[in-house]
Design a protein that fits this description.
The protein has helices at about 45-55, 95-105, 115-125, 140-150, 170-180, 195-200, 220-225, and strands at about 5-15, 20-30, 35-40, 60-65, 70, 80-85, 155-160, 185-190, 205-210, 210-220. By secondary structure, the protein is of the alpha/beta class. The strands form two sheets. A six-stranded mixed sheet has the order 6-7-8-3-9-10, sandwiched between helices. A four-stranded antiparallel sheet has the order 2-1-4-5, with helices on one face. The structure holds adenosine-5'-triphosphate. Keywords: ATP-binding, Hydrolase, Membrane, Nucleotide-binding, Transmembrane, Transmembrane helix, Transport.
C-alpha cells in the first residue's frame, strides 16, 4: 500500500537547463524500518535525486511519492519527513538547545519536551547541548543538524552526506545515531560516497553512477555478493 511506503521513486529524471542529464530515470523505494544508503561518487546525482524527492527542484520526468503524495510546499505529509540537504545556519552565540527551539518555533508546530529529550538522547549531544554552538566541533555541529532534522521524530529522515568532513570516530558516532533512529518503523535515506560507511550503517543500498541506477537492494546482496557492480562507483 503506497500510503504506507515512506518513499517510492519512479523513473525520476533531471535534465538541467544547460542540457546536462544529472539523473537518468531512477526507481527505488524506502520501506518502514529500512536505512537506505544512496551510494555513488561525487557527481553521481545523489543530491539532485534528494532535492527532487523533497520537492526542492522539479523532476524532468518521473515522480517521487512520500507516503503516496508528491512533495512540495503544503504537501500533507511534510510533518512526517525530516531532512538535511543543506547545512543549516546555526546562531553561534546561542546554545545548541536554543537553536533547536528557535528553529522549531518557526515551524509553528507545538514543542513536545519528551520528544526533544528523546531526540537529544538519540543524537547523543549530552551536556554540550547547553553550550554555545560557537564552541562545537564539526562533528558536534553535524549531530546538532541531524537532531534538528529529527526533532518531530519524522517517519522518514532524509540526509545528504551527513558524514562529509567527519573523522572516523565521528563517522562511527553518526552511524550509531542513525541506527538508533531507525527503530519503531522509522526509515532513513542517507547519501554517501563511502562504500564501507553504507555497508556498516545501512540495511539497503541504491547505487548510482553518472546519473544511472546501477543496483538496488539489501546491502548483503548488493555489496556482499556482487562487488563487480561497484567498480568505479566509490572513491578509493
Ligand atoms: P556530490 O557528492 O558532489 O554532491 P552528487 O552525487 O550529489 O555529488 P549532484 O550534486 O546531484 O551529484 O550533481 C550531479 C551532476 O549534476 C554533477 O555533474 C553536477 O555538476 C551537475 N549539476 C548539479 N547541479 C546543476 C545545475 N544546477 N546545473 C547544471 N548541472 C548541475
Amino acid at each position: 500500500e503506497l500510503a504506507d511506503t515512506p518513499l517510492a521513486v519512479r523513473g525520476l529524471r533531471k535534465t538541467y537547463k544547460d542540457g546536462f542529464v544529472a539523473v537518468r530515470g531512477t526507481s527505488f523505494t524506502v520501506e518502514p524500518g529500512q536505512v537506505v544508503g544512496l551510494l555513488g561518487p561525487n557527481g553521481a546525482g545523489k543530491t539532485t535525486t534528494l532535492r527532487m524527492v523533497l520537492g526542492l527542484i522539479r523532476p524532468t520526468a518521473g515522480e517521487a511519492l512520500l507516503f503516496g503524495h508528491r512533495a512540495g510546499p503544503g504537501a500533507p505529509v511534510l510533518s512526517r519527513i525530516g531532512a538535511l540537504v543543506e547545512g543549516p545556519g546555526f546562531l553561534p552565540h546561542l546554545s545548541g538547545l536554543d537553536n533547536l527551539t528557535l528553529y522549531w518555533k518557526a515551524t509553528g508546530r507545538p514543542l513536545d519536551d519528551a520528544r526533544v529529550a528523546e531526540v537529544l538522547d538519540i543524537a547523543d549531544l549530552g551536556d554540550a547541548i547547553h553550550r554555545r554552538v560557537r564552541a562545537y566541533s564539526h562533528g558536534m555541529r553535524q549531530r546538532l543538524a541531524i537532531a534538528q532534522a529529527m526533532l518531530g521524530l519524522p517517519d522518514l529522515l532524509i540526509l545528504d552526506e551527513p558524514t562529509d568532513g567527519l573523522d572516523p570516530p565521528q563517522i562511527a558516532e553518526m552511524r550509531r545515531v542513525l541506527q538508533r533512529y531507525a527503530t519503531d518503523g522509522r526509515a532513513v535515506l542517507v547519501s554517501s560516497h563511502l562504500l564501507a560507511e553504507v555497508e556498516q550503517t545501512c540495511t539497503h543500498v541504491v547505487v548510482m553512477r553518472r546519473g544511472e541506477l546501477v543496483a538496488a537492494g539489501p546491502v548483503a546482496e548488493i555489496i556482499g555478493d556482487s562487488p563487480s557492480v561497484l567498480v568505479g562507483v566509490t572513491d578509493p
